[in-house]
Amino acid sequence: MSDRRPRAARRRSPEPQPAAASPGPAAGPEGPSVVQATLYRDGRRVASPATLAETYRQLREHPDGMAWIGLHRPTEQELHSLAAEFDLHELAVEDALEAHQRPKLERYGDTLFVVLRAARYLDAQEEVDFGELHVFVGPDFLITVRHGAAPDLSAVRRRMEENPALLSLGPEAVLYATLDAVVDGYAPVVAGVQNDVDEIETEVFGGDPAVSRRIYELSREMVEFQRATRPLVGMLHALMAGFAKYGTDEELQRYLRDVADHVTHTSERVDGFRQALTEILTVNATLVTQQQNAEMRALAEAGFEQNEEIKKISSWAAILFAPTLVGTIYGMNFDNMPELHWAGGYPFAVVLMAVVCTSLYVVFKKKDWL
Predict the structure, then answer these.
(1) HSE-up of residue 127 (Cα within 13 Å, Cβ side)
(2) Tens of pLDDT, residues 174-193
(3) DSSP codes joined into one string, 156-220
(4) pLDDT tens-digit series, residues 74-132
(5) Distance between CA 150 and CA 302 in Å, rounded?
(6) Which of 166, 163, 164, 159 is nearest to 184 (CA)?
(7) Lower CB count within 10 Å: N or C terminus of the chain?
């Protein structure tokens, strides 16, 4: 990263490509893809070219300068132009075009290719939005290719321009500042997720039926967050391992160690969130099961009570049916009917009714139907 050889010695061709070296800011539906192109010398801005072609020309005129080019969703023509000018590897260019890459660190000759996953917390939607950043770092240039709204690198540029001594250390200093900005952007996300987890715990014990969906969605976001933060730990350690080999400035070494500490802390917090959400989901499933069991038990108890009432009603209906049956028989209006003119017929009928009713009452009482 400290190689400051003349540009012509590192170029595929000292002459610009006629067809590909002159694209200007391609205005698309989201605005120009070339966000900003700036030339620096000794840590201070010396030019802000309007096009890539002008950037190439001025950088050739100032071989001791550094170009910092920021792109947002660039076109294939623009990336191929940059690849021809700065000798970027075709595999790295392909990754930058396609996006959807996992964080990684690769070195192609004297060019470093870094993929970062930025994140921001959206308060209104209570969700995490992820962006992707590709960084090409050469001896005298740094190119950022941003996919998504995050991260906002304008603050990084202002910060570096306010510290010319740090910016004069070259593209490597800008890379570390970019890493720091991406990692610092994780802090509001961690705070927002912590608040979500606290709310979810309250909703779980409050019996909110919609909480399961929220737990699932936040768990998916934490999986994505893990994929963004975990590889960064190994990437930063790989950069630190190359301090001696590439003669990294001591100030930059301290800078990177601080970034590594922050990303390690963030990665641990994200792991904790995912574990907590797993446990909350288990607790929620248990509470839902208990609630369902309680509802089933209540239904069973209600059914049992209904059965008891039906038994009582049926028992009294049977008891009352016996005298009704006897009375109905003796109430028939036929001339030729046994015992119709019997003097003891009425007492016999009454006694018969009483005996039948008493017998039925005793039987139902023994069976606890009454």
Answers:
(1) 10
(2) 999 999 999 999 999 999 99
(3) HHHHHHT-HHHHTT-HHHHHHHHHHHHHHTHHHHHHHHHHHHHHHHHHHHHT-TTHHHHHHHHHH
(4) 888 989 999 999 999 999 999 888 878 889 999 998 899 999 999 999 988 888 999 89
(5) 58
(6) 159
(7) C
